[in-house]
Amino acid sequence: MGKTIRLTMAQAVAHFLKKQMTVVDGKKVPIFGGVWAIFGHGNVAGIGEALYQVRGELPTYRAHNEQGMAHAAIAYAKASFRQRFMACTTSIGPGALNMVTAAGVAHVNRIPVLLLPGDVFANRAPDPVLQQIEDWGDGTVSANDAFRAVSRYFDRITRPEQIITALKRAMQVLTDPLDCGPVTLSLCQDVQAEAFDYPENLFEEKVWTIRRPQPDADELASAITLIKSAQKPVIISGGGVLYSQATQELEAFVEAHGIPVVVSQAGKSSIDERHPLALGSVGVTGTSAANAIAEETDLIIAVGTRCQDFTTGSWALFKNDKLKILGLNIAAYDAYKHDGQPLIADAREGLKALSKGLGGWKAPAALTERATKEKNVWTDAANKAMASTNAALPSDAQVIGAVTRSIELDKAIGLCAAGGLPGEMHKLWPATAPGSYHMEYGFSCMGYEVAGGLGAKMANPDKEVFVLVGDGSYMMLNSELATSVMMGIKVNVVLLDNRGYGCINRLQMETGGANFNNLLKDSYHQVMPEIDFRAHAESMGAIAVKVSSIAELERAIADSKKNDRTSVFVIDTDPLITTEAGGHWWDVAVPEVSPREQVNKARKSYVEARKHQR
């Protein structure tokens, strides 16, 4: 029997985490960027004491909200292209449940994060303990069972020795390009403090690297044949291209074979949008250029994308009856979607193998010419939408234009998550470098933005992070603004105040609904709220300014470069204006019957639009 070391279960967790390593840009670094912690009775005495012992090797960060800190951890991993990630620990009950929404964000987006919520007493001696959820029909249930549906791997540790296999399984999932996602190890609070003689080799240093599955020879041959037979192929580039670090291979593939490329929300920044064949965003929030090519394509080469409904226009975008789909994906689940022909492989290795097999083959010149023409039309429309204005209430697009004109795009990250801004940013943000565009749109979680900006900045301290957020999302969760100030991490927040949920108000109108309960003016209140967002941000320690025009916003951003802490720019915007060019129908079910003629009219349009769905 090998040597052992006597530790509490929580101490074993801390010592294990600090020994997990990876290689980034040729340098060996800890794979965990740190641990976010909000302590309570369910973790302060156990995991809290253990983290204190390793604080010099595994830093612990204090946050203000459990959901917020988990968002920051998720953004850190996303901005690190999943090469590094973080852990989060909470007490039991409400503290733990506050992380469930964030777990959903990580699960949908396939982002690694280790969640360590405290749990009830395994020995049940104080049963029910403070904050314990009691199930009258199942004595094994706790609040943490809510994590099961939003975890790639879930385990409840009821004996100290169980953590040995649980930690190993957790790391396998967190580092696996296929299974990657949130891991929840639910730590019973009494077991955290129990000691066990752990094998010393559990705490040996381990280096984790990216697994790169090669394509199957038969699937590769079929894929090459399929591409060569296409007359109007198009590449849809997804987040998998970024996580595979395949951006150079994607550009080389496009150059060699003359195939236009469009991007999903997660895939934006996988190719420099200044490239003549980079047509930008596709689908519901797509550019006119990307959607024009996508509508006529006879072959979608879907690389590292899960083909979400926004990407595909609810599967109504593609109008060619001869359409075929080639799914280059590490996940067979995604590659086979909508009868796709699979090429199961790492994105980088798959693109290299495809390009080698295609040799000198190029897409027809007519396709390249059409793509160039459509891009020129779109570029003119985008520039017009983002142009400066003296309007009292500028559009989201005009604010985006002001921000992008005021920063060095290659040295900045534009970050957003929910509302109308993701659609405008997907179309208009000029992504030029991998990771320069950071959008959480798998879950489109309101409240991700401020906390996400903090995490993205922690992963990229040399970049300027610009968070664009609406007043609705800001009000959902803004507490990590104070955390960024407390930690001395500068984030730039552009807060667009359109007095409510402008995006959903527009959707309500488009589906025939009356203006109701979205904009503040259309909701129930006795006093119309006038929130001073500048004063609010200042109260949390940020440097804040309220601007009244696009020109003032540009000057304020320029002036903020000398600021030594988080800076917030507040500007009033119009809730109704969106970029006219581009876009596509989205399947939002309209009531089949209604006493309102507007709804009945919208229903007829809805029925007609659904006829185009594959």
Report on this model:
This protein is α/β, with parallel strands linked by helices. It has three domains: 4-208, Thiamin diphosphate (ThDP)-binding fold, Pyr/PP domains (Rossmann fold), CATH 3.40.50.970; 217-377, Rossmann fold, CATH 3.40.50.1220; 387-572, Rossmann fold. It is 37% helix and 19% strand. The protein contains 24 helices and 23 strands. Helix 3 packs across helix 18 (448-459). The longest helix has 22 residues, at 365-386. It holds the Pfam family TPP_enzyme_C. This is 3,5/4-trihydroxycyclohexane-1,2-dione hydrolase 1. One of its GO terms (cellular component) is acetolactate synthase complex. Belongs to the TPP enzyme family.
Question: Keywords for this structure?
Answer:
Rossmann fold; about 625 residues; globular; alpha/beta; 3 domains; DHS-like_NAD/FAD-binding_dom; single chain
In short:
This protein has 614 residues and is of the alpha/beta class. Helix content is 37%, strand content 19%. The model has no long low-confidence stretch (mean pLDDT 97).
Strand fraction: 15-25%
Per CATH, the architecture of the largest domain is: 3-Layer(aba) Sandwich
Query: Mean of the pLDDT scores?
Result: 97
CATH superfamily of the largest domain: Thiamin diphosphate (ThDP)-binding fold, Pyr/PP domains
What is the terminal separation in angstroms? 61 Å
Structural class call reads alpha/beta
Shape: globular
